[in-house]
Predict the structure.
Amino acid sequence: MGLFDFLFTRQKSKPKTKFQSRPGPTPLPVRKRVFISFAVEDNEYRGHLVSQAKQNRSPFYFIDMSVKRPWDEAEWRKKCRSRIKGCDGVIVLLSNYTYHASGARWEMKCANETGVKMIGMRIRKSDTSAVPPELEGKPVITWNWNNLERFVNSL
């Protein structure tokens, strides 16, 4: 075939689809949306968990509803409920503060009402603080990568 034929002659061949054109990398697994519920006093631990989620091998990412400026409670609840509803799961960071954290307790109640899967995760292995009643019947795990991954993979 000459150059003229190549440029101006129509080929009778199957058109290539975008999937046939060339092999590419294996698609990444879908990352899960996970909402973190925590007492404001445990913000440091929330930061550690967010850092874990940013690792390449992490199968999840987080929806951050932490308050960065003064807020109207009704507006916060409305936005929070919408975000929880759009998540695959909720992880509640459990510490000595969680039982008395009204915002975290409301988030747990919201997760229960919307049917979003939820677990409690103890910040410290030695922590035996009371588990809020909103987590009744839900798993409570210790914080380690395997437990996190198992929960996220179950979503």
